[in-house]
Specification:
heterodimer, A: alpha+beta, OB fold (Dihydrolipoamide Acetyltransferase, E2P), 6-stranded antiparallel sheet, 3-stranded antiparallel sheet, 22% helix, globular, B: alpha+beta, Gyrase A, domain 2, Elongation Factor Tu (Ef-tu), domain 3, 6-stranded mixed sheet, 6-stranded antiparallel beta barrel, 20% helix
Chain lengths: 125, 371
Amino acid sequence: MGDKRFTKDHEWISVEGDMGTVGISDYAQHALGDVVFVEVPDAGRAIAKGAEAAVVESVKAASEVYSPVSGTVVKGNQAIVDQPGLVNEAAEAGAWFFTVKLSDPSELTDLMDRAAYDAYLKTLE
Amino acid sequence: MSDSDTPLLTTPLDSLHRQLGGKMVPFAGYAMPVQYPAGVMAEHLHTRGDASLFDVSHMGQVEITGPDCARWLETLVPGDIQGLGLGKTRYTVFTNDQGGILDDLMVSKMADDRLFLVINAACKHADFTHMKAAIGDKVALRMIEDRALVALQGPKAAEAMARLAPDSAAMTFMTIREIVIAGIACLATRSGYTGEDGWEISVPAARAEELVRALLALPGVAPAGLGARDSLRLEAGLCLYGSDIDAATTPVEANLSWILGKRRRAEGGFPGAAIIQQQLAEGPARLRVGIQPLGRAPARAHTEITDEAGNRLGEICSGGFGPSADRPVAMGYVPRAFAVIGAKIKLVVRGKALDAEVVALPFVPHRYIKA
């Protein structure tokens, strides 16, 4: 997978060719606390950049996961649906939420690279 | 002035919370720990398995004194306060003229002419003003501002308390006693808000941190925040004022008819008595019930409840994930015809109607130490 790019809402995407893999950042899983429920999008669903694409819930609250790009969902990650706690263990690795076929790769330029995201997190402290 | 412009109040345990790594959030005008580094899930499970220490100093503590103080308090609440035994504690509510609940509270009888009340943080000033206006010329009312309140809750609470206060073993559920804990003169009730055995302890503010440090030093005792307190009370089927009960909800609708004293049901003499008596006789239009979502998706407060055909029935009042139940749990209001164990309902979560059914409360059995 390619380098990760991040949104201000704490999603990440890594892209190879026109295929992206989307998840939430380690910062996001830590802020949420113990994840108890995950909903991922069905294959074939068209999603717009910034639109709600998935749901992640902790004991206390539900949060939306927004798609960092526009495109068509290829696959949701059933592993995190079956074992939501994986999101806490491997948010930026195996606990990805869905894969997406990008319809407009130029949208990626709006996202932050790792260094820019780390700098952004510092402003939230 | 918006909330963010108002400086938050702090409890006498504020610096200890910060030392313990508490994540401080605004709650009812106070900076309170929502969780510590262990997290809500671990703190919840620790409470059910061992014992947890909660700071609830934001809550109001009130003393009512004077001859006939129980009789005067009865003009504001539907509970049997005159029949409350010395050293006993009772759960009741303040009602309004429509029978709605202004707040829920604990009342303890310290002496024939002295009652001790614990009221909700967000309501405490309104409650005090309400009492002052209604009975302030009959009894002496004092808001106790110089004491903290902490709760020690869980199956290991008794063992922990016994080490610091041997007298505590003689107490049973819903009793109160002036008791020396770790050398500090406290006022403790054997009660709580988790469904577990435990104590709520009123302690002079100046010695609150000393008491809490002594309790936290005992084996099995760890700090827990408001997040765990909320999931624990939800599993225990206990009401949160402002979510499950409010000024537009009567105790009968809230399925709290058990708090209405037998004599009080007959005699009335509290605000909204006629409406409450009518609901007792005829049954209320709606009732608070336990709701079990049948899938894994939690249904949060304000989730719409419908029948199987999609007709609106009501709303979830509290809902989330129950760490001990290990599944989503909720409470909500439904029409009386649906307030039957096993009734099939739907919960509209993010536009999808999910299967659920009405179940008995609590979700996790209470483990009180009764006489």
